[in-house]
Every structure is written in C-alpha cells, then in structure tokens.
# Entry
Amino acid sequence: MSTEYRAESMEKAERGMDMRVRSGYQGYKDLRVFQLSYSLAMELFEESKHFPPEERYGLTDQLRRAARSIPANIAEAWRKRKYEKAFVSKLVDCSAEASEAEVWLEMCRDCSYLPTEKHAYYASKYDELNRMLSTMIQNSKKFTR
# Structure
C-alpha cells in the first residue's frame, strides 16, 4: 500500500472522527481499537489486490475475511456490552481472528507475496491490536454497563 493512500485513509478517518466528537457521539467507532482494526482491514484489502490470481479464493479471501471480522466483532461487542460475558466473548473472538490474520500474513511473507518489511509492519500492528483487546478483556467492567 502506498504511503499516500495510507495518509489519505487516515485523513478521511480523522475527519470522520472530528464530526462525531463535535456531535458528542460516543460509540464503537470512537474506540481506538476499532479504528486500528478497521484501518488494518482496509490496508490489507489494498495490499492483497496485488496477490497472484490463483490465490483469489484461497489465501486472499482468508486474509481479508479474518481482517474484516475484527472491526465487525468489535462493533457487535460494543452493542452487547450490557452483558459482560457476551462483551468479553466477542472480544475473545476478535483476538482469535487477529491471530488468524497473523498466520495468513506469515504465509503471505513465506510465499513471497508480502515483503518482509511489510510483514513486520503488519505483525507489529496486530500485536498492538491484540494488546488493546487483551486490556479490554481484562478490564471489561470499565466498558460494560
């Protein structure tokens, strides 16, 4: 993914966040963990456009599915926060999907579809994401009502 595209995506996301903050919106889209997971899913979507065509229904789909599942599950967890166990369960699902995405990324690197530097970038971002999810799970009472 190009640096320009990444900067443009972040700028759009920041503009969207500014509008919600001004309107007083407090929802899952305001969570840093959601923002990071959504950004990663979009980056991997762009990155995977360059994978070989024979991987379209294999590695490409698996990686995209795992990456997209994380922000979707965070949104579901947020809506279920009235029930702590349901909230935690969805966050655990997010963490599992993040781990799955990491495995697909390792395969992409090992198949030479993803340069080592890009793999290192994504690995560090997924590590950060998993740390955020772990903190939310361990401190779930702060998020549930």
User: Anything to note?
Assistant: Helices lie at 3-23, 32-48, 59-79, 84-110, 116-138. The chain has a mean pLDDT of 88. DSSP finds five helices and no strands in the chain. Residues 124 and 141 are 27 Å apart (CA to CA).
